[in-house]
TrEMBL record:
It is an enzyme of class 3 (hydrolase). Residues 418-488 form the Chitin-binding type-1 domain. The keyword Signal applies. Residues 500-877 form the GH18 domain. It comes from Aspergillus arachidicola. PROSITE patterns: CHIT_BIND_I_2, GH18_1, GH18_2, LYSM. This is chitinase.
Length: 1268
């Protein structure tokens, strides 16, 4: 129950790479970090749709079974992936143990994987710049280079022995690697480096007779992932790519048997070892006549290592085992002959405990290969696996999958990182009590579990779709396949309620609004069975607190005709920094008794009919800006309700508001809570809102999450009703939420229709018009919408219709280029929704909120009720100031102030400031149109300055940054020498190729000085290589021969500081600051209006604590003028175009920085995530070389949180309606003093326009003070 609702998708972090949305779990935009998951692909994130891979903007390493084509819509995919974070250094994985076998020769078992490495010359074949099978745009070369770099790093540090198949994606590029089992990893790393330099589409060293000696790299645009997969598949199958040309021969290390001399003449034979392992020869076992002596293949083996263990050459191994492509099709548990003869019978046998003989599928496995290697037929494998978990048939082998190669009991499937339900949750043990695998690790709330191990509540999760094999744990291509708690039917609704409840919520806090200020006594008689009065709160001593709503509450308790229920909490109380801990503490064991006793005592004194609790939400881990909830809070809530129920009289009701979101509801033990409450208020609204932006799982088919959706969608309401009834709550105990407000959005294109029209703004900031009463963009009452329909006013576009798909009223309103879309329920739609709910045997409906339905007869705040026992405070004398005497401007008032009554000066001054504030808010809407384009240029221009400033700071021979580095320099082909970077020879003055490698020896000193000198933050800098070239001096040329072609000399700067990628450089948008400030702007507006009314009604006289209306004028003027300056600055920049000259660009930047500095005090703690510190913003001036510009000197004041701008606004916003430590009058007096402490020298730092307006205020104040 709240006027504002924020639902944020919670990322469980890169470790599990799962997005938790309101209706279930989905794969995150990116898989887990490689740094967290480790080098073993078994621990990487499983992805089942290419779109989930494509949506990640990071560099991703991934593998998949190359036989499952990504281009085939009927393919079932398992892609194992991890994110290669910047600066990634992969931990080395331990190589699999190579068993010590009897041999007459020494065996070398280390980095050479049980063989020996020899150098051999190969001729690479280079492909064209674009892959021949490519159909999409070619990737950017820098993207290819980064993907290749990450592959090289991984191969160098992590790849084990054996065949390597791996892909990397970076933005537009995908790069695939195939390395046969006899290519050393050191050689592969060098080969990848060569590929990065050549930048062709492919480079291969292909041996058609032996894929084990083949290595290839292929690149393409990500849209051509299928083409790169086909290239890898060809290499694996012993085929070579066509349309290549020979390159320069290279020397590579390959693995051979330790007794092998077949690769003669080796250039150099190298033993690669951390230490030799030797065994003495032993007598060979006697074998039956005709059977050969054998070696078993283990993970990471190659023909070379097997021949070494056999004690024979590679040639002999091939002679004794003449299978086609032997060395590229080795499989674990396969056996090879070490001498002449036939293989013994090695058909796989069940394990000793009766479990079948298991096999883990690799990225290059096909059924036929696995069958051939294990002396089986493909049909044998199909027969053994009819009921194996995840078995979708031989055509759909999945990387990492466990399958059976014999009869026997079925194995547990491989664990999957990130799975939260089903048998593949890591750490799950095989059941011994007959429990079906699908029933292991059920989802909270009895939600559906899909085949990938994710919980959810929609049709995507809850529909069974087994593969054609019918095996458990499978899903048809393109589906998720429910495995447990399946179905989308409402259950537990066999009995109708004894009484259909019609509940209305009354917002007692509506009295703080400028309009829609309904009195509780205006609630219509006989329309509602229950009225929930919102909100009471809880004190720090765990007692009932109604001070903020006491006036309305005193009338409420005297009313009759409905059940009087007091509601505690609400969104604000549950989530604001000062109060979020109250419910958490009050329900703990040590405070529970005190809280319950205080509640019971209060109910007895006030003669209420019940209590309603709206804690949003116990155990929630992701509410912004507060400490995450703890897992025990749900159980604490249950224990509290149990205790309260035991102490309340049986005729008193107890109810609970619960969210219609799986993500938040799963922390509530609702099945047990249902035993102690009379009914639940089920908040089936706010199903969508501004918060959906960037949540790809918030709405099917809309990856950006910003498609227009109704927050009261009937289908989604039905799904929520399914969820909670499946969780064990009876339908008749559930009161379903309906609303008297809309969620509104600014349409990106007002001419758009259909489900994929989008809206503007980010997840925390709506661009929609604020209503005159609700004053919040994105949230507007039915009363305000009806007023727009009847009286469009300034809106030239007003269109209403019913969206049948969501069963919602839709209103579109605004002006060309700025049209809002709002979804809501009118009276007819509410009636239909109520009848539908009634027909399903639910307990009734609750309407949020009564006071949002129509404008009140109490808009002036006085319902003429003098029987409430509360004294009116109005003065006997009401100030009379003719409106035609109000000049309407500060300069006009300053001119005539001396001739006016002081009370009228106060009244007119506050009226003018209030009007300026409203004008600023209106101007913000106007200035916002087209502003984002200007900001885009500002961001672009700012980022363009970074590299030139770095280069100037690092200028060869003289740059101020050089002193923090050592330089290792060399002429091309020469040996490196070390010098200080300032003292090294000036090799750049010589016409020669050279390289300089920079070694940063004082990191802190460098970045501190860089920021001070140039304004560049450390996070904006990366280190990389930079290559340039010049033409060598051609020398003397003969007459008539023409110009000789350029012979390029390359100059390289290695590990040189460079501008990081644009997406890593955060340049905050000042408009977001203004949007984020709206909470405090609303508080300012409310407080200013209240003070204006107080002066007009003569409530505000000189007080006993030296407070006066003059304090209000002084205090309010500063923030009002700051906001006006910021928004006027937005107007000033609108004429600056993209192709502006340099000075105009700088003027734009200064105007934008002015917005920042003027608005920062309104934003407070929200500043950091949006913009950064004031000091970091000011550094932009350093970046563009204008540090002394006067427009930025105000930063000296703004970055001090104790300065006047902060102090004034803090006192005003903190006092609110007088509920803080100081009364409002006292707070304004303190704010006035804070403004008075602002020195003239400090004021001079503010923009001229602000100073001019402030001078007028001071002139008015001087006139007032002269009379005292």
């Amino acid at each position: 129950m709240r006027p504002f609702f924020i639902l944020l998708a919670s990322l469980l972090g890169f470790t599990s790479a799962v997005t938790e949305s309101y209706n279930g779990q989905y794969a995150d935009n990116c898989p887990s970090l490689c740094a967290h998951a480790g080098p073993n692909p078994a621990n990487w994130t499983n992805i089942h749709h290419v779109r989930n891979l494509e949506s990640c903007d990071e560099t991703v390493l991934f593998g998949l079974n190359i036989h499952n084509s990504v281009a085939d819509p009927n393919t079932i995919l398992t892609i194992r992936a991890c994110v290669a974070s910047e600066g990634q250094t992969y931990e080395a994985a331990a190589s699999p143990d190579v068993p010590q076998q009897p041999s007459q020769l020494n065996l070398i078992v280390a980095e050479s994987c049980g063989a020996k490495a020899v150098e051999k010359a190969f001729t690479p074949q280079v492909g064209p710049s674009t892959l021949s099978k490519a159909s999409s745009a070619a990737p950017q070369s820098t993207h290819v280079a980064e993907a290749t770099r990450q592959l090289a790093l991984f191969v160098d540090k992590s790849v084990e022995c054996g065949t390597t198949i791996l892909f990397a994606k970076h933005k537009s590029a995908v790069v695939g690697l195939y390395s046969g089992a006899q290519i050393t990893k050191h050689a592969v790393r060098g080969f990848l480096d060569t590929f990065a330099e050549k930048q062709g589409s492919t480079v291969q060293i292909c041996q058609p007779s032996s894929a084990a000696l083949t290595v290839g790299v292929v690149s393409a645009g990500f849209g051509d992932l299928a083409a790169t997969q086909d290239a890898i598949k060809d290499w694996n199958n012993g085929l070579c790519l066509d349309e290549t040309i020979p390159g320069t021969p290279v020397i590579m290390d390959v693995l051979v048997s330790t007794v092998d001399k077949s690769l003669n003449p080796p250039i150099n034979t190298t033993t690669i070892s951390h230490g030799n392992m030797t065994t003495r020869g032993k007598p060979r076992a006697l074998l039956p006549r005709g059977e050969c002596r054998t070696e078993e293949v283990h993970g990471g083996d190659s023909c070379a290592s097997l021949a070494s263990r056999c004690g024979i050459s590679g040639t002999d191994l091939s002679k004794y085992n003449p299978q086609k492509n032997l060395c590229s099709t080795l499989k674990p548990k396969q056996h090879l002959c070490c001498n002449a003869g036939t293989l013994p019978d090695f058909h796989p046998l069940p394990q000793p405990d009766g479990t079948c003989n298991t096999y883990k599928v690799s990225d290059n496995d096909g059924c036929s290969d696995v069958a051939d290697a294990h002396y089986l037929t493909q049909q044998d494998i199909e027969d053994f696996n009819k009921n194996t978990w995840g078995w979708a048939g031989c055509a759909h082998l999945q990387s990492g999958q466990l399958i059976c190669l014999s009869k026997g009991t079925l194995p547990m499937p491989s664990p999957v990182q990130g799975a939260t339900c089903g048998p593949q949750v890591p750490g799950t043990e095989k059941p011994s009590n007959g429990t079906a695998l699908a029933d292991l690790n059920p989802c909270p709330l009895n939600a559906c579990c899909d085949a990938w191990g994710f919980c959810g509540t929609t049709i995507d999760f809850c529909t069974k779709s087994p593969a054609d094999t019918g095996a458990p744990g499978t899903a048809k291509p393109g589906t998720n396949g429910c495995i447990s708690n399946c179905g989308m039917d409402i259950v537990n609704n066999g009995k109708a309620p004894d009484q259909l409840k019609t509940i209305g919520y009354f917002e007692a806090f509506d009295q703080t609004r400028a309009c829609l200020r309904m009195s509780v006594k205006e609630i219509p008689a006989n329309k509602y069975s229950h009225i929930h009065f919102a909100f009471a709160t809880v004190t720090s001593s765990f007692d009932v607190d109604i001070r903020d709503v006491e006036y309305e509450f005193s009338k409420f308790v005297k009313m009759n005709g409905f059940k009087k229920i007091l509601t505690f909490g609400g969104w604000a109380f549950s989530t604001e920094a000062d109060t979020f801990q109250r419910f958490r503490d009050a329900t703990k064991k040590e405070h529970r008794e005190t809280f319950v006793n205080n509640l019971v005592s209060f109910m007895n004194r006030k003669n209420l009919d019940g209590f309603d609790f709206d804690w949003e939400y116990p155990g929630a881990p992701d509410i912004p800006d507060i400490t995450p909830g703890s897992p025990e809070e749900g159980d604490n809530y249950l224990a509290f309700l149990q205790l309260l129920r035991s102490k309340l009289p049986s005729e008193k009701s107890l109810s609970l508001a619960v969210p219609a979101s799986y993500w938040y509801l799963k922390q509530y033990p609702v099945k047990d809570i249902a035993k102690y409450v009379d009914y639940f208020i089920y908040m089936t609204y706010d199903l969508h809102g501004q918060w959906d932006v960037d949540n790809k799982s918030s709405m099917p088919g809309c990856q950006p999450g910003n498609c227009l959706r109704s927050h009261i969608n009937k289908t989604e309401t039905h799904d929520a009703m399914v969820m909670i009834t499946k969780a064990g709550v009876e339908a008749r105990q559930l009161v379903i939420g309906i609303t008297s407000y809309a969620r509104s959005f600014r349409m990106n294109d007002a001419s758009c229709s259909g489900p994929f029209c989008t809206f503007a703004g980010d997840k925390r900031h709506s661009m929609a018009y604020a209503g005159p009463c609700t004053t919040t963009g994105g949230y507007i009452s039915n009363a305000e919408l009806n007023d727009i329909i009847k009286n469009p006013g300034n809106y030239s576009i007003v269109k209403s219709y019913i969206d049948k798909d969501s069963d919602s009223n839709i209103l579109m309103y605004g002006n060309p280029g700025a049209v809002d879309w709002a979804a809501y329920m009118d009276g007819d739609l509410k009636t239909n929704r109520i009848n539908w709910i009634k027909g399903l045997n639910f307990g009734g409906t609750s309407d949020w909120a009564i006071d949002l339905q129509n404008y009140s007869n109490n808009e002036n705040g006085d319902d003429d009720d003098d029987d409430d026992g509360i004294d009116d405070e109005a003065s006997d004398e009401t100030l009379t100031c003719p409106s035609d005497k109000n000049p309407g401007t500060l300069d006009g008032l300053a001119d005539i102030a001396d001739s006016l009554d002081s009370g009228c000066v106060h009244l007119f001054a506050l009226d003018i400031l209030y009007s300026q504030l409203l004008d600023s808010l209106s101007l913000f809407q106007t200035n916002s149109e087209g502003y984002d384009d200007k900001f885009g240029w500002y961001e672009k221009w700012t980022k363009e300055q970074i590299q030139p400033r770095i280069d100037g700071y690092m200028k060869l021979g003289e740059g101020k940054g050089l002193k923090y580095f050592d330089c290792y320099w060399a002429y091309t082909g020469g040996k490196e020498k070390k010098d200080s970077c300032l003292g090294m020879p000036h090799i750049w003055d010589v016409t020669a190729g050279w390289s300089i490698r920079y070694d940063l020896v004082d990191k802190k000193g460098f970045f501190d000085a860089l920021a001070a000198e140039t304004g560049i933050d450390e996070s904006w800098v990366t280190f990389g290589d930079e290559t340039s070239d010049i033409c060598a001096d051609p020398g003397d040329t003969r007459p008539g021969t023409g110009s000789l072609p350029c012979r390029k000399l390359f100059r390289k700067k290695l590990n040189y500081p460079q501008k990081g990628s644009d997406d890593k450089i955060h340049i905050g948008n000042p408009k977001k600051l203004i949007e984020a400030s709206m909470g405090n702007v609303t508080a300012l507006r409310t407080s200013l209006l209240s003070s204006y009314l107080s002066v007009g009604l003569s409530f505000y006289d000189d007080g006993p604590n030296d407070t006066s209306a003059t304090d209000a004028v002084v205090a309010y003027s500063m923030p009002v003028l700051q906001l006006a300056e910021a928004i006027n600055s937005m107007k000033d920049i609108k004429e600056i175009g993209e192709d502006a000259k340099e000075q105009a660009k700088k003027n734009l930047i200064f105007k934008i920085l002015t917005i920042v500095f003027m608005v920062i005090p309104f934003v407070g703690e929200a500043l950091g995530p949006l913009i950064g510190s004031a000091a970091s913003v000011a550094r932009i001036a350093l970046l563009i070389g204008e540090a002394g510009n006067g427009a930025l000197t105000v930063a000296d004041i703004i970055e001090d949180p104790s300065s006047a701008p902060f102090a004034v606004l803090g006192l005003i916003a903190g006092a609110g309606g007088g509920s803080g430590k100081l009364s409002k009058a006292e707070a304004l007096a303190e704010a006035s003093k804070a403004r008075g402490l602002l020195k003239g020298s400090d004021l001079a730092k503010f923009p001229q326009r602000f100073r001019d307006q402030d001078a007028l205020v001071q002139k008015v104040v001087k006139s007032l003070c002269a009379r005292s």
